[in-house]
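re: ur question from the group chat, yeah i did fold both. here u go
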Amino acid sequence: MSFTDVALLLTILLFGTYSAQGFIKPKHDKVVVCYVASWAAYRQGNGAFSLENLRPEHCTHLIYAFAGLNASNWTIRSLDPWGDTEKDGIGNYKKMTAFRKQGLKVSLGIGGWNEGSTNYSLMASSPDRRRTFIASTVEFLKTYGFDGLDLDWEFPGSRGGAPYDKQNFLSLVKELKNAFKGYRFSLTAAISAVNSTINVAYDIPEISKYLDYIHVMAYDYHGAWNKQVLPNSPLRSKDGIDVEHTITYLLEQGAPAEKLVLGLAMYGRTFILKTVPETPKINPIGLPSLDIGFKGPYTSEEGFMGFNEICEALVLFPQNWTTGWDNESSTAYAVKKDHVVVYDDLKAMIAKVEYAKKQKLAGVMVWSIDTDDFRSKCTSLYSDMTLFDGRDYPIMKTINAALANNTKPPDGNQSPGSSSALLLSNIAFVLSITMIYFSL
């Protein structure tokens, strides 16, 4: 038996099962929804992500983001016709739905931040427009072989929306679900995590009746727009603007735990401080900042850095960055003079996964898998998370390992990373067994 054989065997025993399709399936019964940003293919250098880079074994569900709405006739449309339907003679739609053969559920997302709310508000306000949209969506999903639709209207009642969007969104969801029954299409929605937006946008108990899963976008709680360094996705906080309060509120509003999917951010929010700290070792949370953050080299979006961009910066320029951990929010940060990035590292991800398990949620989703370290450029930061089969996708591997790891979630007397240490000790144990085997 070779080293590879033993490594694979131990990996399967600890973390998953080997499927008939030839890849390791996570050894847990939770949902892991992976959004794939279609525009990631156009990023520069190491940031360019094509579907050939996708490792579907880390997910149970895939969502291709995004399709759009044609406001001239109220039908669903591709936002990138060449990439979606023609690229490589087949198009990304067909490439995505081919993953269904490996046992994954593959949905098409519609909407997103750039699409706004205005056109969706107008479409949903008319029964005739809703019928037209729904009929076009059924044909679209059938044509390209998707399993379902993910609604990403951001957001009913705001950003160009109207006060009556809340009821119309419910009508749209109900009518879509009825139309989908004959085709066994799934219907999910990505919703805001901000209580004020939730109140304006969603009739939680009613939409829960018709949605298969509710994807909670539990990030973007804060950013440079606050003019102060604050966590992008705090697990908990004193002001109540955090993951725990969001999930508690949705459960109180009538959302079934078994339909809630906790969103995890594979990116951080960036800030430019108004003044350079006297010491780089300072915890930057709460420091005043400008109202605009700096860009990452691949995503090129102000105030935003993908995890792959963050970890590469830490690996390539370790002398420039000072890293730290904010206990209150369970958030990692890195400081370089007047530049700060606040993000979720592996420790933060494990803490959130354990919270989702404790609350008995359906599982987790990631926005988005294309900003994980899919090219394994940052292995020196997480060498203990290689899991034998390569050093790429450290976040996805961490998430699945934490879901499969039957450890007791931390209580108030434990640090957020206490079970992380236990998980890593399990991995170290398997590594030691492998080393012993080959020393014989």
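okk and heres the other one u asked abt
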Amino acid sequence: MQLKDEWIQEDDVYDNPLLRLTINGLKYYGILLYKSQPFKELNCFRGVCFTASMLAFNVTQYVDLYQVWGNIAEMTANAATTLLFTTTIVRILHFYWNRARFNNAIKVADEGVQHLLRFGNAPEKEIFWDNVKYMNRLTAAFWICALVTANTMCVYALVQYQTLKSMDLFNSTEPFDPPLILRSWYPTDNIVDSFATIYLIQLYIMYVGQLIVPCWHVFMVSLMLYARTALMALNYKLAHLEQYAVSGMRSGRKIKCVVDPEEERCNVRKELIVECIQQLHKIFEYTRELEALTRGAMFMDFVVFSVLLCALLFEASSTNSFVQIFIDICYIMTMTAILFLYYWHANEIHYQANLLSSSAFMNDWYNYPRSVNRHLITFICYSNKPLDMKAYIVSMSLDTFLAILRASYSYFTILKQAAG
């Protein structure tokens, strides 16, 4: 395999405060590369092996779903992991297909962060570091949720197996619920005796999933968070335009000395407004690219998670096992968190973009000459262009997120009435 230059990132990108927690995880998985990395092809091969093993395992999960088709309790017990893996695999394959575009999005975000840290003033840097702290807390919370969900299921299956084995129920004729780990398809007639092999295979796959699922979703959210950070800094710049002009600083450069300081200040105001228009245009293009890279997967999540949340609620309400209820709740929290992360930050981008015209109106425009105000009006007109992300026909907003939760609960109510 010949590696292209656009697939390989600079080493400094992996030290970016906003991105490093997630892109280093993707680097370990094997889908991101850096220039000084030895054995790049071997790293790519590791990523392909991880993805291929997840894909093969996911096929066996669908075989299992076919075998238990009609038994709602057993179907929902396996459907959560099956569909979560499916959506993740689709995202990884989509990355391979659009590797250059994803790497370019990382590069643009890194360049924007580096420019802000180099030329931004103290309030802009404070906005950035507040978002970094927010990103770190968000990453920790989502990782904890994902790790607890996956590890609880693995440990619970092992405890179930040891309990049933000690009671010798495997050889008895009495009905019993098999461990969750034995629900998966395996090419042998005696899956009980092959428990160790099955368990190790699923444990390996589960830990691969624990690596890629949190890393991928938080990675995409970090790119969305960069867009929100850039919009917040732009809002601050517009609201305090006069401070930028009076300070004599623009993009880290001192303005030249002229005979008429007021005339130069007016020119600086115009240049600042033009810069704001250019920055907003870049943010618009960047957000549209993120939308194009996420809309397919998000539309699939919109359809799949609505039904799956309903199924998990039904299983949690039907089982008598406290541990199984806990696992179902963890899965519900994980899937709800995935949807919330995307829809919340897409809503934040839309909200910050809507503030731009108000921020432009907050400066001392009434003291500006007409030539400056004409530039300001141009920006306000341009900023009124809506900046909302969509998953094809589905708008990514908090209203849509709440609609998904309401629809899932409605499906659950109907299913519960039909089962009762």
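fwiw on the second one: The first helix runs from residue 20 to 29. The chain has one domain: 5-419. idk if thats what u expected
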